[in-house]
Design a protein that fits this description.
219 residues; mainly alpha
């Protein structure tokens, strides 16, 4: 029975992952079960074996999202040096922005407010962790005295920059935006004598990966 439940759960993950790319780009509010089945590349009958309603699907996606955020929180290694944690935090921030697009969050808040609040609470927990890290960096003499809340607010700017129209009009690539933003945060946060400790070569392949991932959602 346990193996059967695990198989069912894994199949639900596979099916919703096929849907995620679509809903991150187009939202889900107007989607019908027939359309969802087409996007998942299965029959309507097969879809109902795994999900009884659209709300069931969205609730499952939100549950996975919350697990993902908690994994990020738990994976943050407090024993790492500030430089490594800065790079890790940057990567996590970008991946979360890619995962939770504006249109997905708007549809979630409008159609399923309880699920939206659950997700919002998890994102708040991650934000508290990020703010605690910025405070620690200041106390240890690595970071300039900048209010971490301003850094978090600045991260929201990425949603406006990582927009197809903005990128095309300004002849920017996703990679350029991410790499320049990484450098911007680095210069803002780190004291001049600490910046030389940062190995940017470690971030280049990660930024390339994130740029490819975001481009799939945008274009």
């Amino acid at each position: 029975m346990e193996r059967q439940n695990e198989k069912q759960h894994n199949m639900r993950i596979t099916l919703t992952s096929r849907l995620l790319t679509y809903v991150k780009k187009n939202g889900f509010q107007s989607l019908k079960m027939d359309e969802i089945a087409k996007i998942m590349d299965i029959s309507r009958a097969t879809l109902y074996k795994y999900f009884s309603t659209k709300e069931d699907i969205i609730t499952f996606i939100v549950g996975l999202s919350i697990e993902y955020i908690h994994e990020i929180i738990e994976d943050s290694d407090a024993d790492q040096v500030i430089v490594q944690r800065f790079q890790q935090t940057f990567e996590q921030t970008i991946l979360l922005k890619e995962f939770f697009t504006d249109i997905f969050l708007r549809d979630l808040e409008s159609s399923y407010p309880e699920n939206y609040e659950r997700l919002k609470e998890s994102m708040k927990q991650r934000e508290y962790q990020e703010l605690a890290f910025y405070d620690e960096g200041i106390k240890e003499g690595f970071f300039n005295k900048i209010d971490g809340r301003l850094i978090v607010m600045q991260d929201e700017m990425l949603r406006n920059i990582l927009d197809v129209k903005y990128l095309v009009e300004n002849r920017l690539t996703v990679y350029q935006v991410l790499f320049d933003y990484y450098n911007l945060k680095k210069i803002q946060l780190f004291k001049p004598d600490k910046i030389k400790m940062i190995d940017d070569n470690l971030m280049i392949p990660k930024i390339e990966y994130m740029a490819q991932k975001i481009s799939k959602t945008l274009y």
